[in-house]
Design goal:
extended, VC0802-like, 36% strand, 6-stranded antiparallel β-sheet, alpha+beta
């Protein structure tokens, strides 16, 4: 994320350097010693050039974007302390992982949108407890953690006349990739657009 969106990969703030490219570094020779009596004057201090090859070894390669259609559950819960903890305990007890989650609240209830490792079993757990949960299709995108990544995704969808209804994401600053959940008006078309190179 620390790299400018205008910079090429591997070179923050500068141009790309293919293997075999050389950058000159100039150094000035030490000052000449005083002339002895009768010694002819030489050509004076000379500049010499050092050629330093800049190798690309160790450069970090950004992971390729992975896009798939996932099932999101929108769960309507009481807006009270401890409610989310009980939901998490129930899912963990069924060995279901929460891959992504966001919450919007009102005065009386909260809407918890979540993508689970097993949406069918998760939905069954909520139904057994009389909790309203609605299924919807979303895009789950794992992409490189670099400046401009989200903008490029949004630009592709916009150019294809696909509307983004809402989205949520999270990533660690030092991570190579992040996870983005996007709700669009045409998930299948969006999937084709984002997978197209």
């Amino acid at each position: 994320m620390g790299q400018s969106s205008c910079d090429p990969p591997g070179w923050p703030g500068g141009g790309a350097s293919p293997a075999g490219h050389f950058f000159p570094i100039h150094a000035i020779a030490p000052a000449p010693r005083p002339l002895r009596p009768g010694e002819p004057r030489g050509p004076g201090p000379r500049l010499f050039q050092l050629k330093v090859e800049v190798a690309e070894t160790g450069a970090k390669t950004a992971p390729a974007m992975s896009t798939e259609i996932a099932i999101q559950l929108s769960v309507f819960l009481a807006n009270k302390p401890g409610t989310l903890a009980r939901v998490c305990d129930a899912l963990a007890g069924a060995n279901i992982s929460i891959l992504a989650l966001t919450i919007s609240d009102t005065a009386d209830y909260a809407v918890v949108r979540m993508v689970l490792s097993d949406s069918k079993r998760g939905l069954a757990i909520f139904e057994e407890r009389g909790v309203l949960a609605i299924e919807s299709k979303v895009l789950m995108i794992e992409n490189s953690n670099k400046l401009g990544s989200l903008g490029r995704i949004a630009a592709k969808l916009g150019a294809a006349k696909i509307n983004i209804e809402y989205a949520y994401l999270a990533t660690s600053p030092g991570a190579k990739s992040g996870l983005l959940i996007v709700r669009v008006d045409d998930a299948k078309k969006a999937l084709r657009v984002l997978r197209k190179k």
